[in-house]
């Protein structure tokens, strides 16, 4: 233990200077960290000379207490020198980031960890002492037409030179004066093909290739000259009227080649009309039909039911 200061009777030894901070003593030269990443230190100044009695006063055996200047606490923000490029964030309760690992693109990497970036360009990175070092593959210059998504080198497909012109990869063009042929540049080579044509549903003799057209088209069908009414090829000219077999039905050939038919309704106006073969409606103006026999106008004949009766045909 340090020697204790012994004074004259009735005196006390001076206490060592120290710092008081928030109710707790701190030794001179002590350093500590406060919340909020503040670094504090206890500093004590050199003690002043003892205050003695004036020389002209006699010593009566009592000495005064030697006053010492007390310590003071100085605090400042913690300074964190970062010596690496990708430090890890400060741990819980800590103030300074750590170079014992790496933080790359938001992902914490351990010391010595080897990884690839998220862009998948075959670059390889390694974490060493908080620094991230990346190495990219060396690709040969020039174009590489045979590429695949798994290749690490980004290649520029070759251009095409065709008939004195240069086309970029993937460009589509037509031959001079021939719009029916389409060409495409693929990796330095030109592929040409004819324009696809639709399938036609018209017979060969109705197909037509117009000026500037690439594909045949169907001609418009000619205007009909008449009407075909059956599979035997019977044709009626436009405007022709005929009966298809029933004398009460009449048909007409219309201008668009269609057939329109209409049936005639007969209204009998006399009790004994004459039915003429091939005629639709009975005729009341030519005579009378009685018991299967035909009698002309004003002709008399005996009754079949009563021989004493005489009958006459009257046209009204």
From TrEMBL:
One Pfam family per UniProt: VWC
Predominant place of localization: secreted
Localization: Secreted
Keyword Secreted among UniProt keywords: yes
Record keywords, A-Z: Glycoprotein, Secreted, Signal
Gene Ontology CC terms: cytoplasm; extracellular region
Residue ranges annotated for the VWFC domain, each copy included: 17-100, 100-161, 158-219, 225-285
GO biological process, one term: cellular response to virus
Entry-linked InterPro entries: vWF_C/EGF_Fibrillin, VWF_dom
Protein name in the entry: VWCE protein
């Amino acid at each position: 233990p340090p020697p204790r200061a012994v004074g004259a009777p009735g005196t006390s030894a001076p206490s060592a200077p120290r710092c008081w901070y928030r109710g707790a003593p701190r030794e001179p030269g002590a350093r500590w960290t406060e919340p909020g990443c503040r670094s504090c230190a206890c500093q004590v100044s050199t003690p002043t000379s003892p205050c003695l009695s004036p020389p002209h006063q006699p010593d009566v055996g009592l000495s005064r207490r030697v006053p010492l200047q007390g310590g003071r606490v100085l605090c400042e923000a913690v300074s964190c020198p970062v010596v690496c490029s990708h430090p890890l964030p400060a741990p819980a309760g800590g103030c300074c980031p750590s170079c014992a690992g790496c933080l790359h693109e938001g992902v914490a990497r351990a010391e010595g960890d080897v990884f690839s970036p998220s862009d998948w360009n075959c670059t390889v990175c390694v974490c060493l002492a908080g620094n991230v070092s990346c190495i990219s593959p060396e690709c040969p210059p020039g174009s590489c037409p045979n590429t695949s998504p798994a290749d690490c080198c980004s290649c520029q497909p070759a251009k095409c030179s065709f008939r004195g012109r240069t086309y970029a990869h993937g460009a589509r063009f037509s031959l001079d004066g021939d719009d029916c042929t389409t060409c495409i540049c693929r990796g330095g080579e030109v592929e040409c093909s004819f324009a696809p044509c639709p399938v036609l549903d018209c017979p060969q003799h109705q197909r037509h290739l117009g000026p500037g057209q690439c594909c045949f088209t169907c001609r418009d069908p000619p205007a009909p000259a008449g009407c075909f009414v059956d599979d035997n090829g019977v044709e009626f000219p436009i405007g022709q009227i005929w009966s298809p077999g029933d004398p009460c039905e009449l048909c007409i050939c219309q201008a668009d080649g269609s057939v329109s038919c209409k049936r005639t309704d007969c209204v009998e106006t006399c009790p004994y009309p004459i039915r003429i073969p091939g005629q639709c409606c009975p005729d009341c103006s030519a005579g009378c039909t009685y018991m299967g026999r035909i009698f002309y106008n004003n002709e008399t004949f005996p009754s079949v039911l009563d021989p004493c009766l005489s009958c006459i045909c009257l046209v009204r």
